[in-house]
Design a protein that fits this description.
By secondary structure, the protein is mostly helical. Helices cover 74% and strands 0% of the residues. The protein is built from 9 helices and no strands. It is elongated, with a radius of gyration of 18 Å.
Length: 196
């Protein structure tokens, strides 16, 4: 049987994750089709689901004296994982299940769409807004959107954010004396390889 303190910690984490998922679903509906969100809004929503789940899993499995540090490691890797997933959504070679550009078709804001929209001007900005969230968009429209992600450096900057969050996690692990070949450190490598 698991120790009572550990059981309580698991239950509290489970409850917090459940509340976060509920809030994230509300935000998903509120944010759908919006391109006026800040990067902070997007990261906060990402934290509510994937990142918070990973943060608690890392925290619960960590030695007691390092629980807060491992929570931060999981949080940063969770955010990196979601950002990498957004990049996979526009990579035809990585598609499994939802199909190319599903975030664009569903009007789901990502750092890619927020970066691109904020950097576009005039007619291109209007065209982007018109296409974003259009369920019946054509292949040409989808390719135009992906090209705009490239032209505005949204892809490059999103890749850099993935790396930055992985670096934050690895810096924490390094400060705890965890070797570079430890599986936790290599999880960041997996996230990076998954998207590239």
């Amino acid at each position: 049987e698991l120790p009572k303190e550990f059981q309580k910690e698991c239950v509290l984490a489970y409850q917090d994750i459940g509340r976060s998922i509920d809030l994230a679903q509300i935000l998903d509906l509120e944010y759908r089709g919006r391109l006026d969100l800040s990067e902070e809004d997007y990261i906060a929503q990402t934290y509510l689901v994937a990142a918070k789940f990973m943060a608690y899993m890392f925290q619960i499995c960590a030695p007691k004296q390092y629980r807060s540090e491992f929570f931060e490691v999981g949080k940063n890797l969770g955010i990196a994982f979601q950002l990498a997933d957004d990049l996979i959504d526009i990579d035809a070679t990585k598609q499994k299940g939802r199909g190319l550009g599903s975030d664009i078709k569903e009007g789901t804001p990502t750092l890619l769409s927020l970066y691109a929209y904020n950097r576009l001007e005039n007619q291109d900005k209007e065209k982007f807004k018109y296409i974003f969230g259009k369920k019946d968009l054509t292949e040409d429209q989808l390719q135009w959107m992906i090209t705009e992600y490239e032209k505005t450096n949204a892809i490059r900057d999103s890749n850099e954010k993935v790396k930055a969050y992985i670096d934050k996690a690895n810096n924490i692990l390094s400060s705890l004396g965890i070797a570079k070949d430890h599986w936790i450190v290599t999880l960041g490598d997996y996230i990076t390889e998954r998207k590239s």
